Amino acid sequence: MPIDITMPALSPTMEEGKLAKWHVKEGDSVSSGDVIAEIETDKATMEVEAVDEGKIGKILVAEGTDNVKVNAVIAVLLQEGEDASAIGSGGAKPAEAPKAEAKTEAPKGDAGTLQYDKGTSTTSTAPVSNSNTGSSAPKAAASSAPAKSEGGRVFASPLAKRLAKEAGIDLASVAGSGPKGRVIKADVEAAKSGKGAAKPAAGAPAAAAAPATGMSKNQVMALFEEGTYEVVPNDGMRKVVAARLTESKQTVPHFYLTLDCKIDALMAAREQINAAAPKSKDGKPGYKLSVNDFVMKAWAIALQRVPAANATWAGDSILYHKRSDVAVAVSVPGGLFTPVVKSADTKTLREISEEVKDLASRAKSKKLAPHEYQGGSSSVSNLGMFGIKHFAAVINPPHGTILAVGAGEERVYPENGQIKIGQFMTVTLSCDHRAVDGALGAELLGVFKGLIENPVMMLA
């Protein structure tokens, strides 16, 4: 039976991508492990591998095509003994039995490869935080009634259960279209849109109204004289950044805490450490620590010392993390990445410095694997190098906090009746009030202040 090769989901939030390149052509034979295509998203370029032997019967999406929806059929693989006549219009002929819903597999190291499975629509490798979720397979033949076990339990995929819970939909009222009537993602989305049978879950709040989208493109353009502007379509990265930050501000109850930190001791320690760096033959130092390296280290330790604040909101639960996995905001053309430094509290300043430099370099060339920019419980965003004194950052879900760091500068301050001059920087903590309350956020920021003002305490 011909196998549909579909657009894989590189992450749970991916909705579309670009088919950057085909490594095969129609008629080519492929074996398990052969790279057949490259998929490009806003974050990275990933390879699609064959997991079965066969012959490429038909390529349905041309190389270079953008905005290809996840689970759209991009090619058809013929098995031994089959020829092109087995392919119906638009893809392989339907199987006699409905297709199984897509599985999610853990990533294979940092190889960053995606695979498809025989008899399924796609297999994605994209961990987020501490759980793995994936897109569902295309909708199979609709079931006439919701699937229930003899005990009344509804059969549904984990993703469908999560989506239904978030939308306040009773799964018992949703007609499943998966194998044996199993409720899948497509069924829940149909129920949300009013096209499927669904009713609010008992005691659950009514589904929220559609979020405001603001003015349309035509409405905005109508305000300006034609010819006085240039229209530049948003690329995939900008679309995702806009969607994620809009979601964050609309669904995460932010509150903000601000402190001034005196960094004279930090600047002196940084100067001493950098001065001790070994020099190469051309006089280049072996390392050069930045203020942000100290910030990352201090923030990671603070999260360990106030473990209740090392938290992320997970719907009906809060996840309290044992490690200090801290993301750092990296600006790239057209958007930003947030690569994660794992267990940052256990690493030296030099190790943090080298890792951040490596992650930032590969982020700018889109060479990061998904597990390198997903997960973490908190972020650090530093605009001090641009001279910004103070700002409030938007939380990157599902993180519980993000620390915004301003520029270090000389300021006049009073001490014991005398006027003095010292180096200060302003930091602002944004907290998700569902997971981190005001007093808890204040405690966390206070511990950070103590560490950053007395960097020797990071060794205690």
What does this structure look like?
The chain has 460 residues and is of the alpha+beta class. Among the domains are: 3-78, OB fold (Dihydrolipoamide Acetyltransferase, E2P) (Beta Barrel); 246-458, 2-Layer Sandwich (Chloramphenicol Acetyltransferase), CATH 3.30.559.10. It contains 9 helices and 26 strands. Strands 16, 19, 22, 23, 24, 25 and 26 form a 7-stranded mixed β-sheet that branches. Strands 7-2-4-5-12 form a 5-stranded mixed β-sheet, with no helix packed on it. Strands 1-8-6-3 form a 4-stranded antiparallel β-sheet, with no helix packed on it. Strand 9 (87-88) and strand 10 form a beta hairpin. Helix 6 crosses helix 7. The longest helix is centred in the middle third of the chain and has 16 residues, at 236-251. It is globular, with a radius of gyration of 26 Å. The termini are far apart. 36% of the residues are buried.
